[in-house]
Amino acid sequence: MTEQELKRLITEVVSSLGGDMTLDLALTLTEKVKAKAKEMGVNAVVAVSNSAGNPVTVQCMDDSYIASYDVALNKAYTVVALKMPTTTLKELATPGGSLYGIQFTNGGKIVIFGGGVPLYNKAGKIIGGLGVSGGSEGQDTALAEFGGEVFKALIK
Questions:
Q1: pLDDT score at 1
Q2: Is 0.70 topped by the overall pTM?
Q3: C-alpha distance from residue 37 to each of 24, 40, 127 (Å)
Q4: Cβ count near 102 (within 10 Å)
């Protein structure tokens, strides 16, 4: 087997597992979440990060809150950095919880309320994060969970 054939084979295997977050996947996911947000009457900011927590895309719907930009971006970071949805982290970060105070670490980038979900490849590895901000916590959570389900369908 030549080096070129080996590289091609490795690329195919990595792609079949769903590698890291791609711009195409992130944009498709973002559009679907924004459509759902519009349906719900929420002017959201939708952020998708890669496996390192770095932004791949951040999109702001018309008339979304300025503050929602950082919140959505940080939710996408949080779920990758801590490998859990922000709703799970919320429970752990309550006073007396095992992660109480964590929101004051990582330069204040940790978000401890709903609206963020990790995104997994076919092999079950986190390849990115989705953060949604602009509505109530319940609306943001519903949109993020919707996005997580959409993402599962996109990588099949």
A1: 75
A2: yes
A3: 20, 5, 23
A4: 16
